[in-house]
Design a protein that fits this description.
Blueprint lengths: L5 E5 L3 H12 L3 E6 L8 E5 L1 H8 L3 H7 L1 E3 L1 E6 L4 E6 L11 E5 H14 L4 E3 L3 E7 L2 E6 L4 E4 L1 E4 L6 H7 L10 E4 L2 E3 L7 E5 L4 E6 L4 E3 L2 E4 L8 H11 L26 E3 L5 E3 L30 E7 L2 E7 L9
Parallel strand pairs: 1-2, 1-12, 2-8, 5-15
Antiparallel strand pairs: 3-7, 4-7, 5-6, 9-10, 10-11, 13-18, 14-17, 15-16, 16-17, 16-18, 19-20, 21-22
Helix pairs in contact: 1-4
């Protein structure tokens, strides 16, 4: 038997659930507490050593089935010119891809199912309000007033960790760097088979395939860390920040409108090349939290003016939004 017999993990995100599964497989009794009953976030990517770890604890096949494997990163300038491209190294067994990306709700579903199969209790709406180190372990008080004792308590409650404050006060308080990431998922464009990064003079855009039908779109921008958005500000903010990107995929000028066929279930976006992509992501790939957005219909035949699809959502720590269109790089002249 291991020297550590009982562990409490506070937080059921990426770190907390994976750690709990690994500990249980080594014979350690584990409890997980999670304060929030809703899975927030957009996408999460795994590569390198994290792929090896997923294989070791038996989750890699679930993640590949639920997410999207890929193996390469291409880096472009704001005009879409390729600066460098490289393949990620494979750290898991040869039959597995170098990377996999997955929607966070699907990640949570896969890890929580595995935890339940292993008999790991997950208590939603619960957290720790007091910790006391004692010679034989740690005495914890929970937010319902109950107490328990564990050999080890793991704080896995995220960047804005309440546990860190409980343990250390303001000593290790997070220090914002003035960089904000606005996050979103969109219907996947056929060109997005691997991770794409585009660097402007001020901002960075990333596109990552999340599934056959969806992709992850984080936009990194410098911004006052105290800045918060009203919902009506989100789309205009992203469109403004994308103005320095001149590749067709980031062209966000408003398309002309076309009367919608009332018999259709969703509008279509048509690029200048005639390729068509759904304006709304399939329900099977959407987190329930994200409302349906308004979207453009058809665009004039111009290589730089494309219909745009948008998604808007918000999280506890800020707001997320993005926009995209169905062309990738500058069209041939």
């Amino acid at each position: 038997m291991p020297a550590v017999k009982r562990v409490l993990v506070v937080g059921a995100g990426v770190c907390g659930t994976v750690l709990a599964i690994a500990l249980k497989q080594q014979g350690v009794e584990v409890d997980i507490l999670e304060l929030y009953d809703e899975v927030l976030g957009v996408g999460v990517e795994f590569s390198g050593n994290t792929m090896r770890a997923l294989e070791q604890i038996g989750l890699i096949d679930d993640f590949i089935a639920e997410g999207q494997p890929y193996s390469r990163m291409n880096v472009h300038d704001s005009a879409g010119n390729l600066l460098i491209g490289y393949d990620f190294s494979r750290a898991a067994s040869p039959q597995y891809p170098a990377c996999v990306a997955i929607l966070r709700p699907k990640f949570a579903g896969a890890t929580r199912r595995r935890a339940a199969q292993l008999g790991i209790p997950l208590r939603i709406g619960m957290t720790v309000t007091e910790l006391v180190n004692e010679p034989d372990g740690v005495r914890v008080t929970l937010n319902d007033g109950s107490q328990d004792r564990y050999d080890v308590v793991v704080a896995a409650d995220g960047a804005m960790s309440d546990m860190r404050t409980l343990l250390h006060g303001d000593r290790f308080r997070h220090k914002p760097l003035g960089q904000t990431v606005l996050r979103c998922y969109l219907p996947r464009l056929p060109e997005i088979k691997d991770e794409l990064n585009a660097y402007g003079g001020r901002n960075v855009v990333t596109l990552v395939p999340l599934s056959r039908d969806s992709m992850y779109f984080p936009l990194s921008i410098p911004m006052d860390p105290e800045r918060r958005f009203e919902e009506h500000e989100l789309v205009p903010t992203v469109l403004k920040e994308l103005e320095e990107f001149t590749a067709p995929i980031f062209d966000t000028r408003k398309p002309s409108r076309k009367k919608r066929d009332p018999s259709s279930t969703g509008s279509q976006n048509t690029s200048a090349t005639g390729a068509s992509s759904a304006a709304t992501a399939p329900a099977t790939s959407e987190p329930k939290r994200v409302p349906r957005s308004t979207s453009g219909t058809s665009a004039p035949a111009s290589p730089r003016r494309c219909a745009t699809a948008a998604r808007v959502s918000s999280t506890r720590s800020g707001n997320v939004v993005a926009s995209g269109s169905p062309s990738l790089l500058p069209a041939p002249r």
